[in-house]
């Protein structure tokens, strides 16, 4: 398993970033195809699932190899250096230059992943400890993670029914998306090491186009009123549940083919353009809030300008801030000095 890399993840990360930008520009303008544009905020769910996959996988590898899990403090330091400096720069730029600072949106961008990052070391130990990684123990943990995917839709329905929209930003509302990635990390390692035998899931990895077609179909369903309004208006509890559930299923279909990608999948999602753009994805998502605070005009004008300006800021930030700090970040080593090959991809 050492040396394993998931090149198609790069392209999926870029797609998620562009989708988030399109949806945010749509919220600021009268976008055409408002339903489809608004549902591209599914990019947030893709980011969550990718984080769950890449950050939980080292725990699974340690469990299967009989070594100790990743050290908590180096892991937390790495996450902090990856997220907080860029976010701080964006906040300062917003306060300095934006007439109505986008600090609220930036706070959302920070608060969504941070609780999961803090919870992951304990959750990783809970789900990989106490017994050997047999086929039975792997299946039991997969069932737990599948159960967690249901938590998000139910939580969103409950907080909507109780008129508590602020609670919709709490971790339970998004934990299901992280659980999708975590479950796939466990399945991928278990399948690669023979803890799980062949199944229908192996066939699905060989037909990525079908799974991506299903993901698109699910988003088109979500683009109808069944999943609620297209802006920040309050949905009904049923709409909140349906939207979260459709996003969970769509993300699962989008992510699964990149675990054991076909050659064509690697060419499309793991080529040189994706490799260059992937490190900028986080910066694009963060800096877009600053750019949108400075722009005005129709969707067709704001979208390319936002992508260009946010991409430029992200490239500068990556070159001068993120990459230098990344060289100082500790690698995700286990306590026995075993290194997970996917830890660098999580950056």
Automatic annotation (TrEMBL):
<feature type="transmembrane region" description="Helical">
    <location>
        <begin position="245"/>
        <end position="264"/>
    </location>
</feature>
<feature type="transmembrane region" description="Helical">
    <location>
        <begin position="105"/>
        <end position="128"/>
    </location>
</feature>
<protein>
    <submittedName>
        <fullName>Peptidoglycan/LPS O-acetylase OafA/YrhL</fullName>
    </submittedName>
</protein>
<feature type="transmembrane region" description="Helical">
    <location>
        <begin position="276"/>
        <end position="295"/>
    </location>
</feature>
<feature type="transmembrane region" description="Helical">
    <location>
        <begin position="80"/>
        <end position="99"/>
    </location>
</feature>
<feature type="transmembrane region" description="Helical">
    <location>
        <begin position="12"/>
        <end position="31"/>
    </location>
</feature>
<feature type="region of interest" description="Disordered">
    <location>
        <begin position="326"/>
        <end position="347"/>
    </location>
</feature>
<feature type="compositionally biased region" description="Low complexity">
    <location>
        <begin position="333"/>
        <end position="347"/>
    </location>
</feature>
<keyword id="KW-1133">Transmembrane helix</keyword>
<feature type="transmembrane region" description="Helical">
    <location>
        <begin position="140"/>
        <end position="158"/>
    </location>
</feature>
<feature type="transmembrane region" description="Helical">
    <location>
        <begin position="170"/>
        <end position="190"/>
    </location>
</feature>
<keyword id="KW-0812">Transmembrane</keyword>
<feature type="transmembrane region" description="Helical">
    <location>
        <begin position="43"/>
        <end position="68"/>
    </location>
</feature>
<feature type="transmembrane region" description="Helical">
    <location>
        <begin position="211"/>
        <end position="230"/>
    </location>
</feature>
<feature type="transmembrane region" description="Helical">
    <location>
        <begin position="301"/>
        <end position="321"/>
    </location>
</feature>
<keyword id="KW-0472">Membrane</keyword>
